[in-house]
Specification:
Radius of gyration: 30 Å
Structural class: alpha+beta
Shape: elongated
Order of helices and strands: HEHHEEEHE
Helix content: 40-55%
Number of strands: 5
Distance between the termini: 69 Å
């Protein structure tokens, strides 16, 4: 009998706890909905990223390398200068600006002997441009040495906010 009474007490306590569990679950569900609505709005007006990859025309790049070998456009041997020119061509607010003015404001995100990634963020923080430049190994025989190879803008990633 005693076990039946203790079982009955436990069942009664369990029944009393059910409304509490339901309240906690309901509160948790309500909180998740309350948090989900603002987060959904943030996603709707959050970041958007557009990626542009430049087509690589080997014949045109060989001609460019020959021109640089002949002393034309020596700035193409500088990764930051090539990234700055690409930035001016991609950012509408920078159209017509001298790329030399931007070289100091480009931040190197990464840089190796064959590839560099440079980042520039608009003053209001609403757009970030990430430009990848690289040297192509197949230009080495034409350039003569690694330092004489041209840098080429390969990819531009534009991330805008709201």
């Amino acid at each position: 009998m005693i076990t039946n009474l203790s079982n009955a007490k436990q069942m009664g306590q369990a029944k009393n706890q059910r409304p509490l569990v339901r309240r906690v679950l309901a509160l948790g569900l309500a909180c998740s909905f309350a948090l989900a609505l603002p987060l959904g709005n943030l996603r709707a007006c959050g970041e958007q990223t557009i990626v542009k990859t430049n087509a690589i025309n080997r014949a045109a790049l060989r001609e460019l390398q020959r021109a640089v070998n002949d002393g034309h456009d020596p700035w193409r041997l500088d990764a930051v200068s090539v990234a700055a020119l690409e930035l001016v061509s991609q950012a509408p607010e920078l159209q017509g600006l001298d790329p030399d003015l931007l070289t100091a404001s480009l931040k190197a995100e990464s840089h190796t002997v064959a590839q560099g990634v440079y980042v520039w963020t608009r003053g209001d923080g609403k757009a970030t441009y990430r430009i990848t430049v690289r040297k192509y190994r197949w230009l080495l025989p034409l350039a003569g040495n690694w330092d004489a190879m041209v840098w080429v803008a390969e990819r531009t990633e534009v991330t805008t906010q709201g």
